[in-house]
Amino acid sequence: MSTKKPAEPSPESVARSDRRRLAAEDGAQALADAERQAVEVRKNMARLRAAREAKEAADEALRLALPAPAPKKRSRKPAR
Q: What DSSP designation does 51 have?
């Protein structure tokens, strides 16, 4: 007694294969979206880092160009 596969797939098996196919496509799309977002975040971080380093370099150059502030003299409080 051997059972043969029917030539026509059952509606349940068609629905199951469609669900599996859609789930695989959704998973691949989600992975691609996550990777694309990670790339955008890394680009933004690099842009912000470059801006911060340029500002720090400009601040340091300005600090070196200005004369050093004279130390303030401490005033003595009168004794009571």
A: H
